[in-house]
Design goal:
two-stranded antiparallel sheet; mainly alpha; 2% strand; 2 strands; 27 helices
Amino acid sequence: PLAIELAAARAQVLTPAQMLIHLHQRFDFLVSRKRDVSKRHRTLHAAVDWSYQLLSPELQRFFCRLSVFRGGWSVEEAEAVCEEPLALEYLAQLRECSLVLSEAGEIGMRFRVLETLREFGEEQLSIEEVIFLKRRHLECFLRLSEQYNGNFDVAPDNFRAALEWSKAGGNAQEGLRLAERLWHFWWYGGYLREGVEHLTNLLSREENKGSTIDRAEALFGKAWMAAVQGEVAEACALYEESLDIYRQLKNRLGIAGVLNALGDTVRRIGRYEEARSMQEESLAQCKELDNRSGMSSALRDLGDLALQLGNYADARRFYDESSAVVGAICSMRVLRFAEIALLEGDYAEARRLGEASVVERQNSPQRLGEALLIVAGAAMYQHDLPLAYSQCRESLVQFHKIGSKPFIAKALRRFAYLAVMQGRWERAARLLGANQSLCQTLGMPLPPCERDESEQNIASVRQALAEDAFAAAWAEGNAMTWDQAADLARQSG
C-alpha cells in the first residue's frame, strides 16, 4: 500500500508509462517529499528496512539469502541453498511478519517474496555471499532436474536463473547438463526460442566440446527444436553429431533414440523409405535393450509415417501397439486418431476427438495448434464456417508462438480451403500460391495423405478464375513472406 501511495504522488508529473520506467529503480523513485510523515513512511526503502531491523540476526541472514530464489521455493530447497536446518521454523516466522508469502503447489507448499523485498534482501549481501549462494542454487536445481521428471513448471524461474548463472560465471558444464534436461520443458511449453538460445550458448563453450553424453543429449534437444521450427538441414546436422558421439561412447540406447528422431525429421521432407529404415532399426535396438519407452516412441513415429503415406489401418495399429508396450494410452493417440478421422471423411468423429485434444493439450502450443486445426477442418466440412475460421486463427496464434513454420504452412492451406468453400477465389489463389512457395522454402513437399484435398481445391480455383486472374493471384501469393501470408490469412473470413 505504501508503494502505491508513493507512486500515486507522482501522477501529476509523470504518465503511467513513465512511472513504469522509473519503477525499475523503485527504492530511489518511491520517495515522499512530505515532512509531516514518519521517517519509515517517507521512502519504500525505509519502510522495508524498518521491518527488517525488527528481525533477529539469524532471521535477517536467512531472509537475505532467500533473495537468490526466483519465483518461489520449497522448505527443502531453502534448507539446501541457504544451508539452514531451521528453514521451516524461520519461514513460519517470516510468514507471520508478512515478509514471506506461502501457497499450496502441485507437490507441496511453496514460498515466495515480493520482488521489492527480494531486491532489498539481495542488497544486504556481499558479492562473495551472492556468488556462494548462486553456486549452491545451481547445484540444488541441477539435482532437482533429475527428480522432477520433466515437470519443470513447478519452478521454471529458478531453473532459468540457475542456467543464467552457469553461463555468466558459474559452471558451463553443469549448465549444459541442466539445459539438456530442460529441453523437453522448452519444447512442450512453447519456449523454443529461449531453449535454442541457451543450448547454442552452452554448446559453444570450449569446456563443453568434448564427446560426452551431456553434449550428445543437448545436441539432440536443440535438433528436436530446430525440426519443429522447420529448420530441417540444421536439425539433421545436429542429430548426426549427436549420433556420432553416442556411437563413440557405444551408447546403444542413445543411438536408438537419435535414429528414431532423425527418421522422424527426414520423413517431413519426403524421404519416407529412409525414415522407415531408421525407425525400424531404432525399434529393433530398443527391443533388444528391453527399453519400452523407446519402443513406444519408435512405434508412434512409425504410425506417423503410415499416416502421412495414407495407410490409416497401419497407422492405427502402430498407435495401439505404442500404447500397449507401455501399458498406457499413447499421449498422441487421440490427436492422431482425430486426424485420421478427418482424412477419412468422418467429420463428426474428427471434431469430437479434436475437441477432446484441445482440452487435453492446453499447455502445449504445438499440440494445441494441431488439435485446433483438426477441429477447423471438421467444422469446415460440416459447413460451420465461423467455428472453422476461429479455430484456424487460434491455431495460427499457437504455431506463431514457437515459430512452427511447417504447421503455419498447414494452417495457411486450411485458410485457403475455407476461401474456396466461400467462393472467394482470388483470396484462395493467393493463399495457395503463398503456401506453395513457403513449403518449397522449407523443402517440405505435401505428404501423400493431403494431396487429394489440395489438388481438388486448386482445380476448383483454376476453374472459377480466368487464366490470367489465377496466374496473377498465384504469383502475388508466391512472392509473400511468412508474415505477409499470415496477415492475409488472418483477415476477416
